Structure formats: structure tokens, C-alpha cells
Amino acid sequence: MADMRSQNIDALKGTAILIVMAGHVLTWNHMEDGYIYDVIKVIQMPLFIMVSGYLCGIGRRASDLTQYWRILKRRAVSYLVPFFFWIVLLHPRHPLSSIWETLFCLDKGLWFLMTLFLLNLMTYTAQLAGAKVAHHRKLVFWGVYLFLAAFVAAETLLGWEFLSPGLTRLYLPFYLTGYLAGENREVFADIPKQWRAVFCGLFAAGLIYLASAFDLLDVGTLMLLGRQLLASFLGCGAVICLITFCRDGRVKGFLAWLGNYTLEIYVLHFHFATLLNRGETYNLYSLEGFLFAAASFGVMSLVTAVIIVITKKIPALDFLLYGKPGRPV
User: Of 28, 82, 121, 212, which residue is least crowded by CB atoms under 10 Å?
Assistant: First the structure.
């Protein structure tokens, strides 16, 4: 597995978390705009989900029931332990009612972790079903996977709210795209670097056009949702092509290092996005607004880094907060 996980993957994760952090500085300080924030919004979580799908695509398969439960146990520890612990931590007086409420509206908690677990669950369940038959394993895999996807779609149409199936449905295309890219990684590895630069430019140009011409956050109709999905795929494609085009060096090395701590950063950083805010609203396109956003990003990053360093030295906190075995930074 180590040889299959290149520096590019960790660098993409590092890039994605920086985009998420920038987006939260804008939203928590009420500095959203119709251009920069729209671009951030359509890229940040789709890119994370796509990279996660890719890692699943290149990872170990659920070839039997024992392997299936072993993989799901690891995923549950990584995603569900911090998901539930943070609810209890933030709502210590009413933990059970808060957990119940969050399960019916994942946006009230760390929704990304639960949604990612569900996407993994669907994929590994389909893998197990395919592994159980002697012939037509691909056909069985896709049959089970599409059935589960149809079930998620039916949940949203019926108005079911448990585990927020709308989020799973929304991010499933990105996860599946990443998964298929991981399964067919040799095809993408053979793309010449100059073509990656061309694709990066085309994808970026398409995204810029959509962001400047339309409101990408309006998904009131199926057509508008499709337009947002297109913008997300263009944005993710541009970032992926850019990272894979750039040569290895200090910048990519830093992004890759940062990519090893995305979960830690994800669950912590937004709590400190407004430390410098004194109740004022800034215009992002003014010098004062830009400096405030940059300073807020820097302070948020510093406080987050300090807390990560301290908490990861305590194995119990490393496990409960981040779903990881204790290992010092």
C-alpha cells in the first residue's frame, strides 16, 4: 500500500484542507462573496471525497467476511469515534439527545465523517458481494452498488432524514469517480505532464466561467444542481492536474506533510476562525478585509497546530478526538 500512495495523494489532501480552512474563515466571519467563496465551496469537500474514493480504489479489497469486518472496524474507529465523541464533548449536558438529533441532521456535527463512512460501507459491501460469486464478479459488484445507491436516492425522495441521505447522494458521484480512478490508476499515470497542464488550464477556465456567470450555490432545480456538480468536477480536475503536474519539492512536500493531519485539522480549525473578530463585517475585496482574512487564517492555523501537537501526545485524546492510535507529532 505504501508504494501505491504517492506524494501527490497526500499533497492533494493537504491542498483540500487549506481550501476548507479558507472557506471557513470567510463563512464564520460573514465574508462570503459570489466568486471566490463559490469556487471554494464547490471544490473543498468534493475534492476530499474524491481523494478518499481513490484511496479505496487502490486499497485492499473486502475479499471475504473476515476481511470485510476488519476493514469496516478500522473505518469505524477512524470516522465514527471522533464523530460521536465530538458531539459529547460539545454537548456534555445532553449528550444522548444531541447524538440523536445529529443523526437526523448530520450538518449539526462532523457530517463529513459519517458520510464518508457510509460511502465506504456501500463500496465494501458491494466488494464482498462480488467476491462471494465465482463468475461475473464485476457485474455483481455493480448490481449491489447500484442497488444501494438507488436506496439512498429513494430515502431522499421519501423525505427520510436518518443519517442525512441527501449528503450521501450528493457526494456519491465524487467518491465513485475517485474509486474508479484508483482502480484504473495506470491509465491516468500514463498521461504526459504537458497534457496535465493543458487539462488544468481548461478545467480552471471552465470553473472561472461558471463562477463568474452563475450563482453556483443555487441548487433549487435539477439543472442548477447539475451545474454545481459540473463546476465541482472542473474544480477538482484543475487542482488534481495542477498538483500532479508540479514537480516534487518543498511546496509539495509541505502539502503532503499537511495531508497526513487532515482529520485533526478538520475537526479543530473552525472553532478558532473568529478569534480576531470583534463583531465587525469586512469586505473581502478591500485591503482591510484581505488583511483581516489573512490574519484570521494565520491565527486559526497556529492555535490549531498547537492543540494538535499537545493532544496527539496523549494516546487517549488522539484516539477519541481523531480516531487514531497515539503517536507523538
Answer: 212
